[in-house]
Write a structure and sequence with these properties.
single chain, alpha+beta, 60s Ribosomal Protein L30, Chain: A, 6 helices
């Protein structure tokens, strides 16, 4: 709306121009007012975007429960597998902690620590091994010997179990859309990250290995002789397959 002035009142051109500009600016400002309707915050539909897998430097631990006779075959296999993972992803020293809860368990643990160090050395671990103690939280429970190192691990960027939105709210339409709920797919991502043998494979592919020279020579020789270079697999019925009388 343009400004009006009382009859008979003289207004200079400069004042009238300023009032006209101010009125037009107010009108344009009213047109530029944003919509007051609040829109719900959208979240990524793909669970790989909600729970991406990241590489972190975090500790990896292994608990060993030795007996009075020392390490058994099962413990030896666990220690060797732990050492193999350390050689691939670990850095720095390996820390061995014994429970310091008194009694005869300390002497048994000290003997087992020497055996653990021997198994680590036999598995190719040449670095420094630190030995210490820790105080168990509950002296009644069995206290293991704990091996740990800091290395490269894969995990989800945020933990599972987050529920920022209702699955089916009674007071609104939130959760009634045909969309995946927030925590959907987190367990899949977390389990996949734990099962990867080498976390670096998630960042970049491995380099190609040389071809099989003997297999290539065999195929070329077959082609030169005019034979089929493909491998012919023979399928034989097992005892289970022949149980039906075939």
């Amino acid at each position: 709306m343009l400004p009006t002035f009382p009859p008979g009142q003289l207004v200079s051109r400069s004042v009238a121009g300023c009032l006209l500009v101010a009125t037009m600016a107010a009108s344009l400002a009213g047109c530029a007012t944003p919509d007051r309707l609040a829109t719900a915050t959208a979240y990524p539909e793909d669970f790989r975007a909600r729970y991406p897998i990241v590489l972190t430097e975090s500790p990896t631990a292994l608990d060993i429960f030795p007996s009075a006779r020392g390490l058994d075959k099962s413990n030896v296999q666990r220690i060797r597998s732990f050492a193999a993972d350390y050689l691939v992803n670990g850095q720095g020293p390996i820390v061995i902690q014994m429970p310091n809860n008194g009694g005869g368990g300390y002497s048994i643990g000290r003997s087992a620590v020497d055996q653990i160090r021997q198994q680590l050395h036999a598995s190719g671990v040449k670095g420094y091994v630190q030995v210490g103690t820790y105080l168990p939280n509950d002296p009644v429970q069995a206290s293991p010997i704990r091996l740990s190192y800091v290395g490269l691990n894969a995990r989800t960027a945020r933990p599972c179990g987050e529920w920022p939105r209702d699955l089916a709210s009674g007071s609104s339409m939130e959760g009634w859309e045909n969309k995946a709920y927030w925590n959907f797919g987190c367990a899949t991502q977390s389990n996949f990250a734990k099962q990867v043998a080498d976390p670096r494979d998630l960042a970049a592919p491995r380099g190609e290995t040389p071809g099989d020279v003997s297999m290539r020579t065999r195929a070329i020789g077959r082609v030169r002789m005019g034979d089929d270079p493909s491998v012919k697999w023979q399928v034989r019925n097992s005892s289970i397959g022949s149980a039906g009388g075939n």
